[in-house]
TrEMBL record:
One of its GO terms (molecular function) is hydrolase activity. SUPFAM superfamilies: Metallo-dependent phosphatases (SSF56300). Pfam families: Metallophos. NCBIfam families: P_estr_lig_assc (TIGR04123). This is Calcineurin-like phosphoesterase domain-containing protein. Residues 34-126 form the Calcineurin-like phosphoesterase domain. It comes from the Bacteria.
Amino acid sequence: MTAAVAKPSETHLHLAGELLTPLPEGALWWARERVLVVSDLHFEKGSAFAARGQMLPPYDTAATLAVVERLCASLRPKTIISLGDSFHDRAAELRLPDAYARRIQALTGAHDWVWVEGNHDPDPPQHLGGRATKTLRIGPLVFRHEPTGEAGEVAGHLHPAAKIIGRGRSVRRRCFASDGARLVMPAMGAFTGGLNVLDAAFAPIFPEGVMAFALGQERVFMVSNKSLVADKPAGARWRR
């Protein structure tokens, strides 16, 4: 698979015949349908950790919301699809500050917002607006949280990351993982980790091999397969 022809500042990719734009913020833009896809926002992960005694700065929800708001202001999407694990746990809505709830309600009120159910949040809070579904199909594409390997699928859940070797050093970045028939989104949540795309968990989804589109500061970069390396120790599994 190769990236589609793009402007110097953009990387495009083809999926099931559709032209999509992976964005450096970790979102996916489907211009023809004016659909913005975000995944694994994990709102209130910081407060969940704090409740267990691991004190993290309580600003992850605000930071993640700010990214989504900026994208909405610049792209003006008709539909926003949040691909599951939008909230870190079932009690996240109880910890969500009122100011953040109002910001979410403003987004769901301004757009056709679709909450795809995730394993962390099977029942998104109704009072925040939007509509919930397990799977959403638009044209040749199907959107769900946990990837199955279906052709035309856009999924999340695995938080793909690429470790890249070049010029004597290595860098690890969140990435989009795709083979031209299906795609797994990076996690957008401020405190979310990542699973190396060479991990065995990706093999059933991409049986012919995977290509990584790594997030840079201002654009997304297609990564050559030969530049990808596994995390050490080999075979170690990341836990969400």
